[in-house]
Amino acid sequence: MSTLESQPSMTATEFAAYIDSVVETLQTKMDGVSGQMNEKLEDMSNRIDSLEQTLSDVVKQMDEQKPRQDPATTTAGTEDS
């Protein structure tokens, strides 16, 4: 005799209750995983925002450190009068 034959058979109601229990357990686990994924995505989003701000600050600092050219010297050689 196999193990299935040695166990008493389930009624349809018991089987439905068992399946409902399994589905509820899976739903609970999926909710937990979903919450963890949302937290990780939020953390990544915050880190990306911070990185974008840092890069923006670096570009701004580089622009400020760039020597300014005098507009009069850049156009002085182009006039032929």
UniProtKB/TrEMBL annotation:
It comes from the Eukaryota. Residues 71-81 have a biased composition (Polar residues). Residues 51-81 are annotated as: Disordered. Gene3D superfamilies: 1.20.5.430. Pfam families: HSBP1. InterPro entries: HS1-bd (IPR009643). GO terms for molecular function: transcription corepressor activity. GO terms for biological process: cellular heat acclimation. One of its GO terms (cellular component) is nucleus. Residues 60-69 have a biased composition (Basic and acidic residues). Belongs to the HSBP1 family. This is Uncharacterized protein.
